[in-house]
């Protein structure tokens, strides 16, 4: 396939960016989207130009690094798929593809298509963990958990933290990400001890980072590559209301 790429180029966080048009030729339909970008960068390097910066790591759809906005959609046109697992057979010869970074104040652009998502790390550091000294690794069957609860916790835990929910939301809200982490730990007995302080601290950090409010449009869940449910946001809201109503923290 021969394609036209409209790629966002930005030299640094405080530099002005713009869309630059590139042509790529002889792209195999079996290539992944990132492999196609590798071809583009090889062409740019051979021409003595600066390659396009983009984030990637495992390229197996599990690390959440490959955060790209493709033709106006988080991770591209295929539902339930990360950018690295999106294949070029989803496009046609002669197509024009617009590639942009995540758009959110809390995700500043590092360079080109690479954004700083450390805001998510700080939210997790605020409370997305269980601070229990467990000693040695306990047996998996030591604490019995009903299968329905275990399944719900596992589904919430599948969030890869890619930020597609933020990019898809008109308010740049991080509620789906935060709710998945809160729900995962609130459902499990190991997380009950810090249940109230966890949700208070994580929501406070989310607001501090500058993410927008949730308006229940549902675009976050629609674009999530691993199918995190909106039910987690409902659970987060319940957890937060209970925590605030019974908390000793008057701040």
TrEMBL record:
Recorded family membership: Belongs to the succinate dehydrogenase/fumarate reductase iron-sulfur protein family.
The organism's taxonomic lineage, starting at the top: Bacteria, Pseudomonadati, Bacteroidota, Cytophagia, Cytophagales
Cited Pfam families: Fer2_3, Fer4_8
Residue intervals of the 4Fe-4S ferredoxin-type domain: 150-180
Cofactor: [2Fe-2S] cluster; [3Fe-4S] cluster
Protein name as annotated: Succinate dehydrogenase/fumarate reductase iron-sulfur subunit
Domain annotation 2Fe-2S ferredoxin-type: ranges: 18-103
Organism in which the protein naturally occurs: Hymenobacter jeongseonensis
Transmembrane segments: none
């Amino acid at each position: 396939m021969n394609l036209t790429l409209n790629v966002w180029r930005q030299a640094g966080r405080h530099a002005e960016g713009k869309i630059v048009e590139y042509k790529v030729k002889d792209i195999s339909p079996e290539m992944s989207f990132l492999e196609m970008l590798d071809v583009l960068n090889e062409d740019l390097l051979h021409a003595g130009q600066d390659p396009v910066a983009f984030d990637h790591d495992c390229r197996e759809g599990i690390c959440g690094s490959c955060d790209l906005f493709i033709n106006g959609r988080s991770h591209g046109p295929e539902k339930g798929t990360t950018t690295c697992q999106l294949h070029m057979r989803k496009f046609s010869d002669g197509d024009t593809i617009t590639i942009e970074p995540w758009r959110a104040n809390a995700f500043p652009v590092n360079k080109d298509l690479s954004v700083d998502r450390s805001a998510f790390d700080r939210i997790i550091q605020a409370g997305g963990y269980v601070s229990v000294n467990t000693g040695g690794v306990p047996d998996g069957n030591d604490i019995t958990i009903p299968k329905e609860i275990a399944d719900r916790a596992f589904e919430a835990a599948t969030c890869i933290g890619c930020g597609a929910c933020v990019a898809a939301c008109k308010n740049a809200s991080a509620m789906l990400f935060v709710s998945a982490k809160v729900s995962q730990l609130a459902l499990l007995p190991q997380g009950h001890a810090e249940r109230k302080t966890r949700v208070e601290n994580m929501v406070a950090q989310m607001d501090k980072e500058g993410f927008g409010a949730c308006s229940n449009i549902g675009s976050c869940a629609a674009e999530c590559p691993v199918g995190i449910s909106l039910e987690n946001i409902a659970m987060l809201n319940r957890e937060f209301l209970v925590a605030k109503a019974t908390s000793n923290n008057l701040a």
